[in-house]
Amino acid sequence: MGLRIIVLAKQVPDTRNVGKDAMKEDGTINRAALPAIFNPEDLNALEQALQLKDAHPGSTITLLTMGLPRSAEMVRESLYRGGDDGVVLTDRPLGGADTLATSYSLAQAIRHMGEFDIIVGGRQAIDGDTAQVGPQIAEKLGLPQVTYAESIQVADGKATIKRRIERGFETVECPLPLVVTVNGSADACRPRNARLVQKYKYAVTPSEKAALAADRQALVDARPYLAIKEWGVKEIEADPEQIGMAGSPTKVKTIVNVAFQAKEARRIDAAADAELEGLVKELIADHIIG
Amino acid sequence: MEDKNNLIVYCEYDEGRIADVSLELLTKGRQLATRLGCRLEALVLGDKLEGIEQELFPYGVDVVYKVQDDRLFPYTSLPHSSVVTTLFKEIEPQVCLMGATTIGRDLGPRVSSCLHSGLTADCTSLEIGDHTDAVKGKEYKDLLYQIRPAFGGNIVATIVNPECRPQMATVREGVMKKEIFDADYKGEVINLDPDKYIDPASLVVKIIDREIEQSKVNIKNAHIIVAGGYGMGSKENFDMLHELADVLGGEVGASRAAVDAGFTDHDRQIGQTGVTVRPKLYIACGISGQIQHIAGMNESSIIISINTDPDAPINAIADYVITGAVEDVIPRLIKHYKKNSK
Fold first, then answer.
1. What percent of chain B has pLDDT over 90?
2. Considering only alpha carbons, which residue of chain B is nearest residue A22?
3. CA of A135: which chain B residue's CA is closest?
4. Best mutation site among A180, A252, A266, A289 for testing chain B: the one with the most B CBs within 10 Å?
5. For residue B214, what is the nearest residue in chain A, using CA coordinates?
6. Which of A81, A273, B7, B312 is deepest in the core (most CB within 10 A)?
7. What domains appear along chain B, each with residue ranges and CATH number?
């Protein structure tokens, strides 16, 4: 029997390339100023979902993402690799949320997505590295959670999951439905499939569709699988007190750019072998080594 | 002394002992509790807790809550979260600290969601201070400043939870220092009845297998660390680092970029998302010096940087900068060492 799988994914700024204008004055991140990528561990999660779909024909994969309208790119990326459809949760009042307000919003969206068997997401996103949203969604939905997963098998209404812990591995068994967060050490995601890229390249959200030429809009209308859902506060019936900045217990008090105290270093030219030997002798004499 | 609104540390228990990270947090917790004028409390869940309080009291713990039950070891998310949330509703701690381990990072968010309290992950510093909410025009006294790097380590943010309790934070192992407060310190033990705290419905996840090995890597306690970065270029070149580390009696560490590139294992990763180290000697080989890496090693006594780039950021914090190719420099360092050491 097929599984109904929800994949949680986040579009993140590529934190390896943060420019000076990336921060807004209130201490939050100006995401628009940065290259946006598919959060790496969410790709590992997508691969686990695809493997479950391979093992259970008839399964469906729905990607759920919250962020700016351009997060629709995340859904297309999933479609290109074997996903079935997707929901983009985007609305101004949802912005500025901490992990708790984010997980509330996503949990509300999931409640409106119909029945499901398993929710998978990456362990953590590279912009915050908190690893909190997965377990918090599980708690909000009253579901069990398994974090740090490396592989997931499903049989007889139960998931068997191998997870990585500090000094080894643990294999756990848990009845469906549940929330699983996947570690970066799990299988890498398969590449895009050229045929699927052809099929889904015009998949759009309603707001993206509105910006298309009339003939393209007609094409999207003729093919229902090209419709990406776009939801806001109204669609998920969110409590305004629990979303965005207002719904976030944590507040950013201050933000400081990191600068380490520079030392006066002694420079040694590797070409001068005697200098190198001098350094080694000095370290031995000072009992640093030896 | 109040029995409410204290500072509590969730102590990780494994095979009869308390995890180092928890003892580090108790050390920090003692300072914070004294500053706040509240009690330092410890919560331990596990299967064999006889006498475990003796390990905790010397860190200045005033109260040890123990919940002993076979169902609480090994750790699983739901029963532990059931115990913690039920107890916290009774004792209403103002601050809760947990290790940023696979356990703390699994349990913390679940508890914070259930209690609707703010949680900050991977703090690198914790302080007490006041806060003014300019919008609401409200003053808050003695909040926990939860200080952590964010955004790939490019910024350091101070986070506060003005309204919600407990103020929760996780901290990685090695970030705080572990120090005995008073070897003769005595506190109180409170044994909690497991059946009152474990929700039977929480026992759904079954552990069917565990493969735990004693860690082969001990970079946290190594006096000498030879660390490689992306500039090492390959897994094979890391062998050279092992050779140097073996000769010097040290351990091999790595930057996140080197681990991500598959040059070495994750348990060797040093930095904000790895281990924090303070060795006597740190030799950074082909490490450019991303802030997230430097955050985990800049307290090393002596830092040597070997890099082809004379302007690599790490050189700014190094004591010795060797400009050259690692594959050329390291064999010569080994040669010189062998020749000059006794």
1. 77
2. B151
3. B110
4. A289
5. A167
6. B7
7. 7-202 (3.40.50.620), 224-340 (3.40.50.1220)
The answer, for B114 touching chain A at a CB cutoff of 8 Å, is yes
Contact B321, B288 (CB under 8 A): no
Nearest Cβ partner for A18 among B110, B120, B152: B152
- 8 Å CB contact of A147 and B105: yes
State whether residue B214 sits within 8 Å of chain A by CB: yes
Domain ranges of chain A: 4-242
Q: Cβ contacts of residue A31 below 8 Å, gap of 6+?
A: A13, A67, A68
* A250:B120 CB<8 A: yes
- Residues in chain A with CB shorter than 8 Å from the CB of B281 are 283, 288-289
What CATH architecture does domain A4-242 belong to? 3-Layer(aba) Sandwich (3.40)
> Residues, chain A, total?
290
Two structure tokens written together for A250:
């944590």
* Cβ pair A126, A92 in contact under 8 A: no
Chain A nearest-CA residue for B294? A260
- What is the value of pTM for the model shown? 0.86
For residue B77, list chain A residues with Cβ-Cβ distance below 8 A.
135, 144-147
Of B145, B153, B337, the CB nearest to A253: B145
- A90: Cβ–Cβ under 8 A, 6 or more apart, which residues? A66, A67, A68, A69, A71, A230, A231, A232
ipTM over 0.90: no
User: B7 CB contacts (<8 Å, ≥6 apart)?
Assistant: B29, B32, B33, B36, B38, B39, B40, B41, B93, B94, B95, B96, B97
Q: Are B155 and A257 spatial neighbours (Cβ–Cβ below 8 Å)?
A: yes
**pLDDT tens track, chain A, 290 positions:** 799 999 999 999 887 655 556 666 665 666 667 789 999 999 999 999 999 999 999 999 999 999 999 999 999 999 999 999 999 999 999 999 999 999 999 999 999 999 999 999 999 998 888 999 999 999 999 999 999 999 999 999 999 999 998 878 999 999 999 999 999 889 999 999 999 999 999 999 999 999 999 999 999 999 999 999 999 999 999 999 999 999 999 999 988 876 655 667 889 888 889 989 999 999 998 888 87
